[in-house]
Amino acid sequence: MMGPGMMGPGWGQGQGQTYLGMMGMGMMGGMMTIRTDQSAVKAGSVTFDITNWSRSVLHEMLVVAVDNPASPLPYDYPQARVPEEQVKVLGEAADLQPNVTKSLEVTLAPGSYLLICNLPGHYAAGMVTAITVTP
Hints:
Blueprint: E1 11-14, E2 17-28, E3 31-36, E4 40-42, E5 44-51, E6 59-66, E7 88-96, E8 101-108, E9 111-116, E10 128-134
Parallel strand pairs: 2-5, 4-10
Antiparallel strand pairs: 1-2, 2-3, 5-8, 6-7, 6-9, 9-10
């Protein structure tokens, strides 16, 4: 969960990058969830250190730019997922096997973003969290 240049328990800045550790992704107490160790980061290069804490379920994480993080994303009910061509996906860490960690680096402008798992049924089950990017 920690990356080079990280400070403290999961996030920090180093050499022009912000590192955001994902504190959990997957089944947490029987709930599908994405948790972060910070809800806001500075604009620029952001590295997400993502861990799938599930014991048996594959996950992914998409970074989606949104105008209002409280508004639901478009949803394709027959496919049970967000139609990615209808949202602004800025980065993706796909095929996160259980107990695996991946890093995802994206450049983010100030604004609102959602981190979602878009495998069938996961977004609807609650695998979404908002982050704010500040100037």
